[in-house]
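Let us practice reading a record.
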Amino acid sequence: MTGAFRIDSKRALVTGANTGIGQAIALGLAEAGAHVIAAGRSSCAETVGMIEAAGGTGGAMSLDLSDPPAAAARLPEAGDLDILVNNAGIIRRADSVDYSERDWDDVLDVNLKAVFLLCQAFARAALARNAGGRIVNIASLLSFQGGIRVPAYTASKHGVAGLTKVLANEWAARGINVNAVAPGYIATNNTQALREDPARSAEILGRIPAGRWGDPADIAGAVAFLCMPASAYVTGAVLNVDGGWLAR
């Protein structure tokens, strides 16, 4: 079964790979054998250095998803891709009665429109060369729950879950598997304030059956599996990696 859990010779692109979950995903795919292009608006040099230090191969690509059509148009610069991981995302917080149209548009552009256009560009290229491929979109607990004060983020992540399913339906028979991973509460820079708030942290941990915050590597392992031959019959799935949060 060893070969079923390797992606040697595959070429992957991971968005938002400069830090946190995206960085862990890039490293995990490289450790599984892929050549990984770490893409982000900020420098991904640190990520590439980590990949190379671990014995893998990779490169960096500057990609600004705030202009989705321009970002998608640049995808061919990454070469012939076998794997696309749409990890990049932003969040803006405000009461829904005060939420600005600008914040709504900014979040939907990066979190949903860019995801669709990158998936579309990836699939067009793969189908044109008669190749299959794997797409993994990063969803969220807020693909299933509402949250508070994050209307655009919640709408975008519900959209990611639905988009994953429709693309899986269209492309599965043509060799492209499309899945999503929905992270729970993960220990990253984005959750530092929550983790440092004793009351809020205790409240969150009290609901997680696993009794701990997730590690970015927990997400990387799930993503890597969805890119491997071992998951060939998995498509259209949204895999919760949340320590049991949604089961509570």
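A brief commentary: The longest strand covers residues 176-183.
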